[in-house]
């Protein structure tokens, strides 16, 4: 089957032909209908050899959707031919976090060798993908898989970060979204759909800011040396009640800290490697800093329901396998508008 793999440190993604996988006991095989490209794939592929822990070759794709086409021994409650999205942050399934559906915070997964598809386990950027357990399937129903697949990460991750800040998103509050890429452009829509907060979106490029306005941002601000001042003006000098940094490099983290108001939440979602010094003299009084990871199983179901209601949608650029390498190149250069999705 065709697959997009990372095979050699520093070489980037390649389209290859590999053997079809089969569902082992308890597993489900999906015929892939769509797989999204995430900037985290580049985080992984940009790691130097001594820090790389994801195994080679790695089939990419931690945003996946497909239809069930093979059931492993003992699997029940899943219908052949039914359409699902894959919940990616697989946990042990038995601990306190997993019992709450928060498998993204399972403290045992890593030591048990359980890794997400596309980030250790073979991912969805292939004709077939193996899902380790039916509990990691969220029913798509009538939702279009190509339009929906990225909600498994680019939707779920901002949703989780926003829900965790809900108490700071009251009417009259201000949310700042830094980085209007795959995650950020869905984040803006989630903020508009589930809160009454005023949304200020920040990015480097005018095309990204135009997209932010299209999807509901009240104000847009160019990410330059005047950004903090502009955001302070827009908030009558008070700063934001919640800041979501979907980039996480030092300049955006510095901006997040500069524009956060007193008693605010600063949620750093991007994994750009920047550091935010927290403490009485370095963050606004009462401010809380968090670095959330992905989201819970119930939150994925909620995000899919938001899409069903029409409140949230992904701006998709479609590619075939043959365009996947080009799409990854565009993502690396920050040229994807919304999310790039590979459609087998
Ligand atoms: P993306 O490339 O689609 O979007 C990034 C956006 O940030 C682009 O629009 C880009 O123009 C903008 N940007 C870059 N530098 C900027 C700056 N200095 N100021 C303002 N905007 C800037 O990436 P994505 O797939 O949306 O991922 C965003 C980040 O989130 C990545 O670091 C990714 O690895 C991370 N991520 C984290 C989690 C998590 O669980 N914490 C999950 C998924 C992705
Ligand atoms: Zn991701």
Automatic annotation (TrEMBL):
<dbReference type="Pfam" id="PF00107">
    <property type="entry name" value="ADH_zinc_N"/>
</dbReference>
<dbReference type="InterPro" id="IPR002328">
    <property type="entry name" value="ADH_Zn_CS"/>
</dbReference>
<comment type="similarity">
    <text>Belongs to the zinc-containing alcohol dehydrogenase family.</text>
</comment>
<feature type="domain" description="Alcohol dehydrogenase-like N-terminal">
    <location>
        <begin position="24"/>
        <end position="140"/>
    </location>
</feature>
<keyword id="KW-0479">Metal-binding</keyword>
<feature type="domain" description="Alcohol dehydrogenase-like C-terminal">
    <location>
        <begin position="182"/>
        <end position="306"/>
    </location>
</feature>
<dbReference type="InterPro" id="IPR013149">
    <property type="entry name" value="ADH-like_C"/>
</dbReference>
<dbReference type="InterPro" id="IPR011032">
    <property type="entry name" value="GroES-like_sf"/>
</dbReference>
<keyword id="KW-0560">Oxidoreductase</keyword>
<dbReference type="Pfam" id="PF08240">
    <property type="entry name" value="ADH_N"/>
</dbReference>
<dbReference type="InterPro" id="IPR013154">
    <property type="entry name" value="ADH-like_N"/>
</dbReference>
<dbReference type="GO" id="GO:0008270">
    <property type="term" value="F:zinc ion binding"/>
</dbReference>
<dbReference type="GO" id="GO:0004022">
    <property type="term" value="F:alcohol dehydrogenase (NAD+) activity"/>
</dbReference>
<dbReference type="InterPro" id="IPR036291">
    <property type="entry name" value="NAD(P)-bd_dom_sf"/>
</dbReference>
<keyword id="KW-0862">Zinc</keyword>
<protein>
    <recommendedName>
        <fullName>alcohol dehydrogenase</fullName>
        <ecNumber>1.1.1.1</ecNumber>
    </recommendedName>
</protein>
